[in-house]
Amino acid sequence: MSNSGSAPLGRRGFLKGVVIAGGASIAAPVGAQAQVPADPQDKLAPPTAAARQAESEPPPELPALTTERSGSDFMVDVCKTLSLDYMAACPGSTFRGLQESFINYGRNISPEWLTCLHEEISVGMAHGYAKVAGKPMAAMVHGTVGTQHAAMAIYNAYCDRVPIIIITGNAGAADERRPGVEWIHSVQDGAATVRDFVKWDDYPRSLQHFSESMVRGYALACAQPPGPVFITADAELQEGPLHAREQGRLSIPRLMMPSQSVGDANALAEAAKMLVAAQSPVIIADRYARSQQGMDNLVKLAELLQALVDKQPTGTIYVAWDNADTHEDDEVEAVLRAAAGRLVLLYLPTYSPWLNPIEMLWRPFRREVTHCELFETVEALLRAAQDFFDRHNRVPQHVLSIIGSHPAKLS
Questions:
Q1: Same structural domain for residues 194 and 324?
Q2: Residues paired with residue 168 on neighbouring β-strands, in sequence order
Q3: Tally of CB atoms within 10 A around 185
């Protein structure tokens, strides 16, 4: 971990002195006696012995919310290893420790703090940055209210499959919450509101746990298909003092990015045979391209559709897919014109997964296979996926009940 430079009074020494001095100015003198107002005609009465003693003794020490090194400093060190360029946030008290550390300890560099006026703006900025830069940006939201404000933007990122690191603050331990706002802005499960549309979430209970969760979350956010991850930063971990002995035991795992997953070659070959042999083939493309290589493959897809048209001298081929930009490419339009009406593309309405039966199967797939799992190898992921489909294929009626279809409806 890097060492921060300090001002002559120490980074937080000035604030600590202000807290103590301010408290002394409002604290009643110890042992002071009530004074009877003097007659204006009399001379001013000399101070009592108790008053003189109270003025000469040190003021009573009040609890200060500052410390020279805090857990949030280590959290900033973790973020710096992930090469996060920016952190967008609408300031809130549940992450005040982290904000202070990003600005003072981290010198507001990598990541640079971007102050926003609303949590939905913060997550939206991270969404756009990831689309342009091709890597995640971080956003921070304030407890319960901030998470609810950001929910729609998080959902948009999830639908668009964009990697974002989202951090929320929370005062988890009930006996550590201060009266008032900390109670209504804190919950037992900070990610419950958005869990169904984030890729992964965690609530670290120690600084070492936070270190491992952030590194793992970054890797999962970038793994294909990418998506937002949600990590809760406990307020006590942020603001608690970081002693030298504890600091020496902390470590930051090395970031290891997962390799690109690919489809099973045998399964792809079998699918190709089924398409060629089908009398009325239907192709559900879903999201197609995430890279330049994907765009290049789009051309091959268009050529493949033309080949299917040539293979079927009569009849109409219907292809149902969503409104991804790549599905409206000029190459696709050229194939449609050449097919002269025998190839029909059925575009699904925006945000209408219920019209695509396979979407209903992805929810149990995510719950049973990918949720909160980090596979060490592509082969391990493929084995888990194959096991899922094998189990469901043994009972076709169960699959039909999941996707909401029945033989009578499909005929």
A1: no
A2: 141, 232
A3: 21
Is residue 260, in this structure, part of any structural domain at all? Answer: no
Q: Are residues 359 and 331 in the same domain?
A: yes
Per-residue CA distances from 184 to 94, 135, 143, 167, 204 (Å): 11, 34, 9, 18, 21
Cβ atoms of 380 and 223 closer than 8 Å: no
What is the DSSP secondary-structure string of 252-288?
-PPP-PPPPP---HHHHHHHHHHHHH-SS---B--S-
Instruction: Please state which of the ranges 212-226, 256-270, 380-394 shows the lowest mean pLDDT.
Output: 256-270
55 belongs to a structural domain:
no
| Residue 287 sits in the same domain as residue 375 | yes
Residue type for position 311: K
The band of 118, judged by pLDDT with boundaries at 50, 70 and 90, is very high
- pTM, entire model: 0.58
Q: What is the pLDDT of residue 29?
A: 46
Q: What whole-number distance in Å separates Cα of residue 108 and Cα of residue 251?
A: 22
Count of the separate structural domains present in the chain: 2
**Residues 299, 367 within the same domain:** yes
pLDDT tens profile 263-288? 788 887 887 777 666 655 565 555 66
CA distance linking residue 30 with residue 41, whole number of Å: 30
Domain that holds residue 397: 265-410
Higher pLDDT, 132 or 273: 132
